[in-house]
Design brief:
14 strands; 7-stranded mixed beta sheet; single chain; alpha/beta
Amino acid sequence: MERCLAVCGPGLESFVADELRRLGLAPPTHTRPPAGGASRSGAVEFAGSLHDVQRANLRLRCADRVLVRLGEFYASAFPELRRKASRLPWERFLSPGRPVAFRVDCRRSRLYHEGAVAERLAGAIADRTAKPPLVLKPREDADSDLPQLIVVRLEDNLCAISLDSSGALLHRRGYRLATAKAPLRETLACAMLEASGWDGTAPFLDPFCGSGTIAIEAARSAQGIHPSLSRRFAFMEWPGFDRKSWERLLADAGRAAVSPQARIIASDRDAGAIQAAQENAHRAGVGDRIEFSCRAFSAIEPPLGAGFVVTNPPYGVRLSAGKDLRDLYAQLGKVLRARCQGWRLTLLCADSRLLRHTGWEFDRQASTINGGLKVGLLSCRV
């Protein structure tokens, strides 16, 4: 069994932990923060086989990447670091000639120069494999030729070394080529769905849909489409990768059960955003599952019966700098109270003072980061 970390946005750990439990990869009950590869928040530890690592990459909706622990040891001098690192089984994960990239984080350790740590670890790989690796800078774009990312954390002289199994970050699903202003990451959109409690069958509404990420992720989830079904992963370059086993896993994923049809409605007053959302939904394979329309929030027409509103309204920062959004949030309360009585509302907000103008009391589900801003993920009953 491998010791693994599912890395996520800070504050989203509980949603990732719930996903892992549904996959049968229950996180340990101890509370010791995971060493190496992540800060004290923003990661959930679990144990599994390499097959489970593949399943986690394929099916986790809220995680950014999956790391596999190569080893950990104490080191307080560079010769000791290189000597101990050279004993690790690098050959399990590095194919001959595969470029590597190091991401090093040193805290309260005698070895504090991150570049020097990476240099000694490159030397340790050469000692172990008899071939110096080509060291590149870390990248997180969607290219298929990414170097193998090696994540290193030195804290209190404890060195933890992990290998990234994902490659490009997992929020890169491959469908969002067209974007509106301030696009929302797919992983955060899925955390909002988890927080809302939507089961894929009740009516669903996003009245500030932008480029459509929340509605698209809702439709893909309801249809049983795994989030990372059509992309490459770093583990596909590891020695011993079993392509036939992977293809069987993909075939099983393609036979996922489809939930009963739910009405998924998405609107925005920006015509360009709606066009981008429709293009993204078509690429995501759910263009026929979402009812898009260009309209102001005050003109929404939700279906009868209780449902869910999951949305990312303006915060009053960046895009609306200098604008007073108190009226918008007061209107949010007024319109939803009139047309969505009994619905469940889940949203992101960077300024809790704006929420008072809705007239509701919100339950805080999480605090996280969106586009560099600290935001609350909040819910209430309309």
